[in-house]
Amino acid sequence: MFSAGTDEFVHDQDDEQYYDFISGAAGMLAIAGIGVAAASAYYLSKKPAPTQPPFNLDNQTMVEGPDLIHYSRFSPYGNEMKFMRYLYDDTRTLYDVMPRGSRISNNGPCLGWRADPSSKYQWISYQETMLRAQNFGSGLVALGLKPGPDTLVGVYSQNNPEWVLSEYALYTYSMVVVPLYDTLGPDACQFIINQAEMPLVICENDEKCRSLLKDIPACLKHLVHIKPLSNETIELAKRNGINTLSFHEVETLGNEYKFKPVPPRPEDLSIICYTSGTTGHPKGVMLTHENVIADASAILLHMGDTKPNSSDVMISFLPLAHMLERISHLVLYIGGGAIGFFGGDIRNLMDDMQALKPTITPAVPRLFNRIYDKVQSGLSNSKVKRLLFNAALGSKERDLRRGIIQKNTIWDKLIFKKVQDGMGGRIRLIVVGSAPLAGAVMNFMRCALGCVIVESYGLTECAAPTTLTVNGDYTPEHVGTPIPCCAIKLIDVPDMNYYAASGRGEICIKGTNVFKGYFKDPEKTNETLDKDGWLHTGDIGTFLDNGTLKIIDRRKHIFKMSQGEYIAPEKIESIYIKSQYVAQVFVHGESLKSCTVGVIVPEEESVRHYANQHGISGSLSFLCNIPEIKQLILNEITDFGKKGGLKSFEQVKDIYLHPDLFTVENGLLTPVLKSKRPELRTFFRAQLVDMYRKFD
Ligand SMILES: *[C@@H]1O[C@H](CO)[C@@H](O)[C@H](O)[C@H]1NC(C)=O
Ligand SMILES: *[C@@H]1O[C@H](CO)[C@@H](O)[C@H](O)[C@H]1NC(C)=O
Ligand SMILES: *[C@@H]1O[C@H](CO)[C@@H](O)[C@H](O)[C@H]1NC(C)=O
Ligand SMILES: *[C@@H]1O[C@H](CO)[C@@H](O)[C@H](O)[C@H]1NC(C)=O
Ligand SMILES: *[C@@H]1O[C@H](CO)[C@@H](O)[C@H](O)[C@H]1NC(C)=O
């Protein structure tokens, strides 16, 4: 998840867009110049008790056998490699989730939204949600969709109540939901619709419908639109033999027919969640009802008293196309909580949060980093502010180390209140996952927000969270322990010098949350799932002495050159990229060659600056062809390589300068902006061959 390969459970897609809302809150940190002594006196008088951890935090996992398999101390089965499948007898498939939420909350509010940024949240109850989902599902059956897990239906929308209604409608008739989203790359939606042979897609708006109608997959017969379509789009669809209906029309149709629900079995497929690979087409991760329920149930058991309940409200803004967000929803519904959707524009997220006042939110490190950076830069120009801030942070960090989480100290009132209020003021629990989070940032967020923040690690292939930190462990820089539906072991990665016997290796996961394979792709499944059912994640981890897992690296592309030395091109790239002249770099090597070569997209501004100083002008393409500029860049990166400790056989011996950036659109980057190495190799084949020719 930390890079390409087996994929991340939350793509940092649309990063800028998603987290820009933080910028609006510049100077969120109010620093008041009030006496520090008074502050500490007030604060000393109100200290709550520390969190009671569920067990000794020096010994957080169970370990078994010669392979040092780590599993949860919460596991109800002890150490027999048996894994939890569900927590509640009445909740064994996704179809069971809403009735449980309804019972637990006494038919409380389930889904909420705002018509526009000036209005209040409106809600539908659990019963209404179930009824509308059943009607919508019945409508799909009336349109000719066959109940059962062979029918796959796409949902192509931002988060909204209709997304959830669609999903539960499909489960009501044992059909399978397939999220579609933009950042999978060009033509990905068409590829997925074709591969899954979808007869119908539920589509948010005119624009998304138009994009599907550009190149219509033959299997597609119906488009259900959530927002109104233009007459033009309706006409276009009609001309191409596609039936368009509004969401509401399908509900009405279903209400007329009232088809009986066809509940799924735990072993039935529930979702195919496509993720981008570093190579070729997106891969469809097949998850059964049991996979997903096991994961959510294990999280609930692991969380103990902090788990969501019927007083909780969660804000939904991370993409529902990803498992972390979906599992978060699930955990809320099982606990009878409510979900409020953001308005769809991330720039207004703060505003949505203030209207909703959520108690729970999932988060990604990116969001925390933004807040942290903002606060740090706000401090940089004032010594007094920094002093006061450090006193506040120091005081709250001391609490944290004692296991005390609170937000009513004087420091909160003086210093941290704005950050807390920015998120609505009621947040009590945040689950953060999807990428490593720096310790200083995590500490800061725990202190500033004064709420429980748990860190998790997982992949789409195991239904998202697979490890979680436990109550009372507020130390940063680890991802906790396996949750009780799975076990984790480390295996050797000799190429990278990681050996399980010395406590480091590739993380492998086995359990009831591990997927059934990639849809219609036995070869890739075979590369990822071994014959004993272990999922090979590609992430390198180590278990700390107290049994918590720490992610330390990512399995790299490595190859052996003709003289027998191993080369990791990504490592070389990570050094070259530091040069001011390099915007992007791709390092290539071959087993029959004795050196590496590279493709570099120059940083236009600095190259132009150099060119101007030397009386050269022209387009970037022109500059790329000037030998002097190529030599400049080659010399500079070789210098960086030397300083960065590269051996001479690792250094590129020649480069080709390319004027156009590698992008997601031109197919050279994954949606998380990682290089697609095989595509790059193909794209630049002629140049690579040409460079190597000189050394033959
Ligand atoms: C950790 O806990 C387990 C189970 O309670 C116990 O068997 C084991 O001896 C403990 N290990 C240490 C180092 O205390
Ligand atoms: C779209 O078509 C409907 C029905 O044919 C018509 O009533 C409506 O005015 C049209 N809207 C536009 C914007 O042309
Ligand atoms: C839900 O959990 C919170 C935090 O643990 C607690 O304060 C609240 O009383 C709980 N509500 C219900 C209905 O159990
Ligand atoms: C677990 O061990 C790590 C590494 O020794 C340490 O940094 C961390 O503080 C420990 N966690 C707890 C809760 O003691
Ligand atoms: C999976 O790999 C094993 C050996 O690694 C091989 O025997 C088997 O045929 C492969 N299966 C598929 C479907 O590729």
Automatic annotation (TrEMBL):
Keywords, comma-separated and alphabetical: ATP-binding, Fatty acid metabolism, Ligase, Lipid metabolism, Membrane, Nucleotide-binding, Transmembrane, Transmembrane helix
Q: Which reactions are catalysed by this chain?
A: 5-hydroxy-(6E,8Z,11Z,14Z)-eicosatetraenoate + ATP + CoA = 5-hydroxy-(6E,8Z,11Z,14Z)-eicosatetraenoyl-CoA + AMP + diphosphate; a long-chain fatty acid + ATP + CoA = a long-chain fatty acyl-CoA + AMP + diphosphate; (E)-hexadec-2-enoate + ATP + CoA = (2E)-hexadecenoyl-CoA + AMP + diphosphate; hexadecanoate + ATP + CoA = hexadecanoyl-CoA + AMP + diphosphate
Pfam families noted in UniProt: AMP-binding (PF00501)
* GO cellular component terms, semicolon-separated: endoplasmic reticulum; membrane
Record has Ion transport as a keyword: no
Extract the InterPro entries matched here.
AMP-binding_CS, AMP-dep_synth/lig_dom, ANL_N_sf, LC-FACS_euk
State its Enzyme Commission number(s).
6.2.1.3
Can you name this protein? Long-chain-fatty-acid--CoA ligase
Q: Which organism is it from?
A: Daphnia magna
